[in-house]
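Notes to self after the Tuesday call (sharing in case useful).
The group wants a holo model before anyone commits to mutagenesis around the pocket. I volunteered. Ligand is magnesium ion. Logging inputs and output together so the record is complete.
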Amino acid sequence: MEKIKMTTPLVEMDGDEMTRILWKQIKEEVILPFVDLKTEYYDLGLVHREETKDQVTVDAANANKKYGVAVKCATITPNAQRVEEYKLSQMWKSPNGTIRAILDGTVFRAPIMVKGISPVVRTWKQPITIARHAFGDVYRATEYRVPGPGKAELVFTSDDHRRTAHWQTVHQFAGPGVLQAQFNTDESISSFARSCFQYAVDTKQDLWFSTKDTISKQYDHTFKDIFQEIYDAEYKEKFEALGIEYFYTLIDDAVARVIRSKGGFIWACKNYDGDVMSDMVSTAFGSLAMMTSVLVSPDGNYEYEAAHGTVTRHYYKYLKGEETSTNPVATLFAWSGALRKRGELDGIDALGRFADALEKATIDTIESGVMTGDLCAMWEGETPARKVTSLEFLREIRARMEQALA
Ligand code: NAP
Ligand code: MG
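Result:
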């Protein structure tokens, strides 16, 4: 069989624990037999992050900017216990945080749906993609534990220092309490809006956006206004030509409508809303192991990954010599998504067809009743579920691919 040739390398970011094992198996079983794979490899495994003082993460993110498309394995975000376990010289920051800070942009998470595993919400027939703004708000807030009676004030001093441009009382405290200041910038909100509109155009889906602008008349209202201005000026015609819709509503109304919907749209959420709602939506669709994630930067760079972590519990079993039944689907879809995008940018149709075939073979395998342990518990298909190891599952997909391509 002639392997598919690539022209530009994918930026490959390796990771940790069980997903690092799956990473290698996915490449060997379902990518390398079919694609003459070109990658620029960065090892973001915690051992190598420590060796390079985390420089490797910065280098990988810069390579993502240079080439445009990356595929990333799940990585450990160190906490105190990991510092001990890996004898780290520092509690290195979350690699995803570092990459997001360099690329900027929006994270889109979408569930992979299969027949035989139904969403908890009966009406959902199509995936719901959550677009989460990944900058500012409560994640960059300044907080203060108020010790007792006193006045809290909000002060903004403009850069020219000629005057205090804004001053207002927040609250006159009669006793102890809490205080918090949040911010965001027009620049980040605008790039969030553009990423969402562009992704809606790319995937030909409606875009919903929700905030609490009736209560937050300056903060949330600014988000609403910026979205509307950018839509009117840059995207309205494109949306109309594609027959898709931009729809703004209040966050509480959106929650109610999402539950009653059939799915098949993108839901843009502010940072906190997106954090909370993506966990709700992914759980309701079935499994975190069936959720893909892509970071889209405003200047058109893409980083594909699984939404789940390094599956530590399974890794410890693996280290004891057990063959685990860890679900490789989301990581496999990160690879197919990245290869499809690379093909699109380089005009290599065969890569797109390969990605489609790989995703179809994966879904067909599950729908035929062959799956990893996490899915067996949810299986409602007609044929009884056959639980297989990760490697057996990948070999089953490979056999289907070979048949399809023969
Ligand atoms: P996790 O790795 O997502 O795993 C949580 C649990 O979910 C697992 O123990 C497993 O349940 C189930 N699960 C997740 N993915 C699965 C899969 N592919 N197949 C089967 N079951 C799966 O989250 P965590 O345990 O909270 O975090 C572990 C490490 O991952 C942490 O060091 C964290 O920093 C890191 N992390 C990285 C990323 C990222 O790189 N994007 C994201 C999140 C977390 P059972 O044990 O019940 O089988
Ligand atoms: Mg969360």
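Two things stood out.
The longest strand covers residues 164-173.
The radius of gyration is 23 Å.
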